[in-house]
C-alpha cells in the first residue's frame, strides 16, 4: 500500500499580464476539480476512474481549453481531442476530431474499454460515440463569446494563437510577443499560453493513470492533431508513473515527452521530479511545454519552461497546492 497522490493542470504558458480576476477564476476551478479528485480517492475509486472524473469536470467548465470553451479552428468550429491511459496493463484510449461529444475524455475511455482499438478519429469516433450512448450536443455548445473574439484577432493577425485568454484588444503583451516571435515548426506565432487540461493520479494501491483533453490551437487548420491524444507524447501511464503534458504540441510530439519521463526513471534510475526536470530540459529543443506527474510511490511533480502553468497537487499526507507562476 502507498499513499495516493493527484495532480491537475490547466495548461502551461501564461500571459504575464493575465488579469487578476482571470487568475483567481482559474485557480478556483483547479481547486474544485482537485477536491473532487481527493474525495474520489478517499472513497477508494481506482486511479483511472479518478482521472476521467476530474477531466470531465474540467471539460465542463469554459475557463480552460477543453470541452466547453475549446479553442476554435480556422472555420470557427470546435474540434476536440483527448486520451486516457491506465497504468495497469498500459491500456489506453484516444479520440481526435470530435465535434459533438460533450465529454471527449469519456469517449476516449469508451474506446479503451469497449473497442478493439486504441484510437478513433473524426467520423469514426463520432459514430462510435453514438453507438455506445455517449452524450452529444450541437457544436455551438463548445463555442464561447471569448473564443469568437480571439479567433477574430487571430485571423486579423494571420496567425495561430496559443493564448485565447488574452484581453480582446491587442495589448502591449501581444505587441511584445510579436516583436520577439516564438516559432512552431519554424513558423512564427504571436503569443503563447496553451490551456490544455489534464489529470494524473496514483491511488492507494499504487495504480497510476493519466488523462489529457484539449480543443487545440486557436485558428488551427481543420484536421490538425496535437500531442494530447497521442499516447507517449501528451499522455502516458505505466507501473512506474502517470504523466500529462501541455504546451506546444508539435514539440511535445517530437520529444515523446510523457513516455520519456517513464523511460528515464526506468533506464537511468531517476526519481520522479528529477525525471521531469531532465525531460523538460533535454527533450524540448526550442519548444515550450509543461507536465504534471505522479509516481507509484505517492509522489507528485511538475516541470515547465514557460512563464507559468495552471496546476494543483494533493497527496494523502495532507500536502495541497494550487498555483500558476
From TrEMBL:
Q: Where is the signal peptide?
A: none
Q: Which reaction does it catalyse?
A: Cleavage of a beta-linked Asp residue from the N-terminus of a polypeptide
Q: What's a GO biological-process term for it?
A: proteolysis
- So where does substrate get bound? 224-227, 246-249
- The catalytic site is made up of 196 (nucleophile)
User: InterPro entries in the record, alphabetically?
Assistant: Ntn_hydrolases_N, Peptidase_T2
What does the UniProt keyword field contain?
A: Autocatalytic cleavage, Hydrolase, Protease
User: Site described as Cleavage, positions?
Assistant: 195-196
Question: What EC designation does it have?
Answer: 3.4.19.5
EC class of the enzyme, as a word: hydrolase
Molecular function terms in GO for this entry? Answer: asparaginase activity; beta-aspartyl-peptidase activity
Subunit text? Heterotetramer of two alpha and two beta chains arranged as a dimer of alpha/beta heterodimers.
Query: What's this protein's name?
Result: beta-aspartyl-peptidase
Which organism is this protein's natural source?
A: Eucalyptus globulus
Amino acid at each position: 500500500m502507498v499513499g495516493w497522490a493527484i495532480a491537475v493542470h490547466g495548461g502551461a504558458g501564461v500571459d504575464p499580464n493575465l488579469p487578476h480576476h482571470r487568475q483567481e477564476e482559474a485557480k478556483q476551478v483547479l481547486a474544485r476539480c482537485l477536491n473532487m479528485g481527493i474525495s474520489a480517492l478517499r472513497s477508494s475509486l481506482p486511479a483511472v476512474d479518478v482521472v476521467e472524473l476530474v477531466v470531465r469536470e474540467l471539460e465542463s467548465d469554459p475557463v480552460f481549453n477543453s470541452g466547453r470553451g475549446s479553442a476554435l479552428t480556422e472555420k470557427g468550429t470546435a474540434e476536440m481531442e483527448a486520451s486516457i491511459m491506465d497504468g495497469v496493463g498500459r491500456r489506453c484510449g484516444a479520440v481526435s476530431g470530435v465535434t459533438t461529444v460533450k465529454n471527449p475524455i469519456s469517449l476516449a475511455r469508451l474506446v479503451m474499454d469497449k473497442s478493439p482499438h486504441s484510437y478513433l478519429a473524426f467520423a469514426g469516433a463520432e459514430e462510435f460515440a453514438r453507438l455506445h450512448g455517449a452524450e452529444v450536443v450541437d457544436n455551438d455548445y463548445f463555442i464561447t463569446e471569448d473564443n469568437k473574439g480571439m479567433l477574430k484577432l487571430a485571423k486579423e493577425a494571420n496567425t495561430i494563437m496559443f493564448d485565447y485568454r488574452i484581453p480582446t484588444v491587442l495589448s502591449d503583451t501581444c505587441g511584445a510577443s510579436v516583436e520577439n516571435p516564438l516559432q512552431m515548426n519554424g513558423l512564427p506565432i504571436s503569443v503563447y499560453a496553451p490551456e490544455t487540461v489534464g489529470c494524473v493520479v496514483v491511488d492507494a494501491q499504487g495504480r497510476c493513470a493519466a488523462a489529457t483533453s484539449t480543443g487545440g490551437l486557436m485558428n488551427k487548420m481543420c484536421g490538425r492533431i496535437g500531442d494530447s491524444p497521442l499516447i507517449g507524447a501528451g499522455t502516458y501511464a505505466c507501473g512506474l508513473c502517470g504523466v500529462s503534458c501541455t504546451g506546444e504540441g508539435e514539440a511535445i510530439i517530437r520529444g515523446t515527452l510523457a513516455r520519456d519521463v517513464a523511460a528515464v526513471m526506468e533506464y537511468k534510475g531517476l526519481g520522479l521530479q528529477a525525471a521531469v526536470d531532465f525531460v523538460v530540459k533535454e527533450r524540448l529543443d526550442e519548444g515550450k511545454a509543461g507536465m504534471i506527474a505522479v509516481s507509484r510511490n505517492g509522489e507528485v511533480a511538475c516541470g515547465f519552461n514557460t512563464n507559468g502553468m495552471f496546476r494543483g497537487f494533493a497527496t494523502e499526507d495532507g500536502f495541497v497546492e494550487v498555483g500558476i507562476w
